[in-house]
Amino acid sequence: MTDTLPRRAGRDLPPGRAFEIREERDPHVLETELADDRSYAAYALGHLEPGLFEYARYWVARGPAGSAVVMHATAMGNSVVTVGATEAIAALLSLHPGARAAYVSTAAPEHLRALRRKHQVSDVLHMMRMTVTASTFAHAAGGEVRRMRGRDVNRINRLYATDGGPSHYRYDAIERAVYYGAYDGARLVSVAGTHIVAPNQSLGIVGNVFTEPGYRGLGLATRVTSAVTQELFERGCGDVTLTVDPSNTPAVRAYARLGYRRGTPVVEARLARRDLFGVGPALRRAAARRRAGSPGLEIAHAPPDLEEDRA
To answer: pLDDT for 216-275, tens place per residue?
Structure first.
């Protein structure tokens, strides 16, 4: 892809707001596009792993005003990742808004302006990435934890259900992931697992850390998170990342003791597409392809009033 737009596209679109958009299926190109902040882009990079890549689609937008990558994936429910310039994301989503309902696993706070153009956005969470490497990792000593397998799925679901809602993890999901638990006798009271294990990307994502309320403050979450992190390094993941609420001071401190370092702010949210039948995006895609005049390429532009949406 080029960094500048074809001259024919720039004549009838506002300068700086026109973008070349194409679907990208070359993992090496996508690795380069997502390399600036691997922690922030962890979910998009993780989906380049065989077994996940088949369930993900990536679009790249480039123009004088910047570039962006948007991923729509279905391997773990309908999920969305947005990376890059807000205007480029807005132009891209005008053509490829994704599923009717989805969950944003990664967006920058400023990306909400672009998402709200084509989606109803709800349940917004302002979070923070934390990342550890093998050289900064400090293993938590003391207390036995156990590696969990698919056969433990009922125990895991019962523990998560104590948070107030049903849990429906399946045998195969637990078997493929890395989970460790801490027990009180035969009772599972704390657990940590993974969202993505991507050794080919040298990347692992820790998640689903939970301790039964009556057992909090004993360091159990730190120990199970430590065990998961250690195994990810042993599997070839050079960077291990997780997402935490920055206002959850005890959790941030616990992860920091393991060597996790504060990183980029991220937003998670639920999306409901405004155009449920996809007629508008389909018409815009047809026009964008005619405008480009080149197979596989589309030309779109960000809304002229996007700057006004910053308030």
So the answer is: 999 999 999 999 999 999 999 999 999 999 999 999 999 999 999 999 999 999 999 999
- Structure token pair of residue 49: 């792993």
The alpha carbon torsion through 7, 11, 13, 15 (nearest 10 deg) reads: 70
CB 137 within 8 A of CB 230: yes
Would 2 be classed as within a structural domain?
no
End-to-end CA distance of the chain: 33
Structural domain range at position 199: 137-258
Answer yes or no: is 1 within a domain. Answer: no
Q: Are strands 187-198 and 119-133 parallel, antiparallel or unpaired?
A: unpaired
d(CA 224, CA 140) in angstroms, rounded, equals: 9
Number of domains in the chain: 2
Please indicate, yes or no, whether the overall pTM of this predicted structure exceeds 0.85.
yes
Rg, the chain, Cα only: 21
